[in-house]
């Protein structure tokens, strides 16, 4: 059963010269990709601090569970670290969820950035710490991302209210207008949190979902599983991000339309976020307005204090 989200707290915006702590809570990474990403962060005006054990490797994990959890807690605890960014996704975040101190995280809110497997951490930081987080690039994807991705990251972390997302790439799947808190991330991770003590709540929420390398029938199975579990009963709307190597865009849109057409909630597709070179930064936890008639997502409040 999912928990009710705590009252929202917002981290402070990052100023020039702020220190970003780098953690690896999931899979190991290529050191050259990390260094390219660190150089981009330095060029943005940030300092970086690498967590102890960052380069550990244990099979498909970036070190032992306790070590990866300790990295996160170290960065939240350290007053000289202003924000936290993940080196890579992959797999491993769910394994460390029971090892984190969510009360400490709530006492020390900081901008926290990542996507893909990092979705598990976004959800628990919202549900169990009440903290706004940022679905955005990983350090190791920064050098591959389009310039727009890096600009979006810098502006959002610096405290600018994101501009409304619309344009030719956005399209309506089901009409309507709704408001709610923005939540979500990687569909596979969200689905696998169901039935755990860390299951998210989607009541009155605008749900953003994206994925990579999942066959169409598996996306169908995950959405069906979530519907049958009842977790989508109170959903206010849906925004589809990138579904890289998951079938054609038309197939994805048709599947989602078929799954939700009886619900009469607004749904749009084409948000440039997720496993693609254009990966805009999305503040999770703040209130947004989804206008599917205009194919537009608007942010109604700031994401930082």
Index terms:
9 helices, alpha/beta, 305 residues, 30% helix, single chain
Q: What Rg do the Cα atoms give?
A: 18 Å
Shape: globular
Approximately what portion of the residues adopt beta-strand conformation?
Answer: 15-25%
DSSP E strands, number: 13
User: What's the assembly state of these chains?
Assistant: single chain
Helix content: 25-40%
Number of helix segments? 9
From the N-terminal CA to the C-terminal CA, the straight-line distance is 31 Å
Contiguous low-pLDDT stretches (5 residues minimum) are none
Strand order of the largest sheet: 6-10-9-8-7-12-13
Could you report the average pLDDT, rounded to the nearest whole number? Answer: 95
Q: Which structural class fits the helix and strand makeup?
A: alpha/beta
SSE pattern, N- to C-terminal: EHEHEHHEHEHEEHEHEHEEEE
Query: Main β-sheet, in a few words?
Result: 7 strands, mixed
Question: How does this model look, in words?
Answer:
The strands form two sheets. This protein has a seven-stranded mixed sheet with strand order 6-10-9-8-7-12-13. It has a six-stranded mixed sheet with strand order 2-1-3-4-5-11, sandwiched between helices. Strand 7, helix 7 and strand 8 form a beta-alpha-beta unit. The chain has helices at residues 31-43, 65-77, 93-96, 102-107, 119-129, 147-157, 187-193, 216-229, 249-260; strands at 19-23, 47-50, 83-86, 112-114, 133-135, 171-174, 177-186, 205-212, 237-244, 267-269, 282-284, 287-291, 296-299. Helix 8 (216-229) packs parallel to helix 9 (249-260). The chain is globular, with a radius of gyration of 18 Å. It contains nine helices and 13 strands. By secondary structure, it is of the alpha/beta class.
């Amino acid at each position: 059963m999912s928990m009710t989200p705590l009252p929202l707290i917002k981290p402070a915006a990052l100023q020039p010269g702020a220190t970003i702590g780098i953690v690896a809570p999931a899979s190991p990474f290529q050191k050259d990709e990390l260094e390219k990403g660190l150089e981009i962060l330095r060029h943005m005006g940030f300092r970086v601090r690498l967590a102890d054990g960052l380069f550990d490797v244990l099979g498909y994990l970036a070190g032992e569970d306790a070590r990866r959890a300790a990295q996160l807690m170290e960065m939240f605890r350290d007053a000289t670290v202003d924000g936290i960014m993940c080196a890579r996704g992959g797999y491993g975040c769910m394994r460390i969820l029971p090892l984190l101190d969510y009360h400490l995280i709530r006492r020390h809110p900081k901008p926290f950035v990542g996507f893909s497997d990092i979705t598990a951490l976004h959800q628990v930081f919202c549900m169990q710490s009440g903290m706004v987080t940022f679905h955005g690039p990983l350090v190791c994807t920064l050098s591959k991302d389009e310039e727009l991705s890096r600009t979006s990251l810098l502006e959002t972390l610096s405290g600018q209210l994101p501009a409304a997302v619309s344009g030719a790439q956005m399209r309506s799947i089901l009409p309507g207008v709704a408001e709610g808190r923005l939540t979500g991330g990687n569909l596979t991770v969200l689905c696998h949190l169901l039935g755990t003590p860390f299951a998210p709540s989607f009541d009155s929420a605008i749900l953003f979902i994206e994925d990579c390398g999942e066959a169409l029938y598996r996306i169908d199975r995950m959405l069906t599983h979530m519907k049958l579990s009842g977790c989508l009963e109170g959903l206010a709307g849906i925004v589809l991000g990138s579904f890289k190597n998951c079938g054609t865009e038309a197939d994805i849109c048709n599947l989602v339309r078929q799954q939700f057409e009886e619900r009469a909630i607004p749904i749009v597709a084409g948000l440039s976020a997720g496993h693609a070179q254009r990966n805009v930064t999305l503040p999770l936890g703040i209130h947004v307005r989804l206008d599917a008639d205009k194919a537009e997502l608007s942010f109604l409040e700031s994401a930082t204090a």
